[in-house]
Amino acid sequence: MSDRPMPATTAIDLPFWDGCDARRLLLQRCANPACARHIYYPRVCCPYCHGGTLDWVRVSGRGTIESYSKIHRPQHPSFQAEAPIYFVAVRLLEGPLMYSRLQHKPASDHGLLGHAVEVVFSEPDHGRRLPWFALRGEPPERGR
C-alpha cells in the first residue's frame, strides 16, 4: 500500500536496512574483544562497554518469543486489513531483544511464549524489505 509508513533510515542504521533488502539480518557487534556483544538497535557506540568501534555481522535470525501483543486496531489505516497483527519481542540466539511482527497469524495464541522463530523478510514496500518472524516447529510444551 503506497501510504504505508516506513522506517526512516540514517547513516547509522543504513547497513541494517541494506541487509534486510538483501534478505540478510545484520546486527552490530562490539569490536572490543573483552565485550564482543551483539547490539540491536543500531547505535554509534556499544551500550555495554561504551566502545566506539562496532562491526556489522550477519546473525542467525533465530530466537524465541519473550512477549507479544495481538493488535486488533492498528493505528494506521493501511494495516487494518491485516489485523489482528502479532507484534513480538524476540530474544535472538546472539542475545539482543528485537521487536517485529509475525509473518502469519498463528492458529492459536497458546504456546507463543517461548516458541522458536526465525527471521523472514517482507516483500519490498517503498523499496525496502522489513524483518519479520515466522514460527518454527511445534509450540513448546505447556507450562514452559
Textual characterization of the structure:
By secondary structure, the protein is mainly β. The chain folds into two domains: 8-59, no CATH class; 60-144, Beta Barrel (OB fold (Dihydrolipoamide Acetyltransferase, E2P)). It has one helix and eight strands, in the order αββββββββ. The protein has one helix at 14-21; strands at 26-30, 38-39, 54-58, 62-71, 85-92, 97-101, 116-121, 131-135. The strands form two sheets. The protein has a five-stranded antiparallel β-sheet with strand order 6-5-4-7-8, with no helix packed on it. A hairpin with a 4-residue loop joins strand 5 and strand 6. The longest helix has 8 residues, at 14-21. It is globular, with a radius of gyration of 16 Å. The relative contact order is 0.19.
CATH topology of the largest domain: OB fold (Dihydrolipoamide Acetyltransferase, E2P)
The gyration radius over C-alpha positions equals: 16 Å
Largest beta-sheet characterization: 5 strands, antiparallel
Strand content: 25-35%
Q: Which secondary-structure class do the elements indicate?
A: mainly beta
Mean pLDDT: 93
Q: Name the helix and strand elements from N-terminus to C-terminus, one letter apiece.
A: HEEEEEEEE
Task: Write a short abstract of this structure.
The protein has 144 residues and is mostly beta strands.
Give descriptors for this structure.
mainly beta; 8 strands; 6% helix; 144 residues; OB fold (Dihydrolipoamide Acetyltransferase, E2P); 2 domains; globular; single chain; 3-stranded antiparallel sheet; 5-stranded antiparallel sheet
SSE topology:
Elements: H1 14-21, E1 26-30, E2 38-39, E3 54-58, E4 62-71, E5 85-92, E6 97-101, E7 116-121, E8 131-135
Antiparallel strand pairs: 1-2, 1-3, 4-5, 4-7, 5-6, 7-8
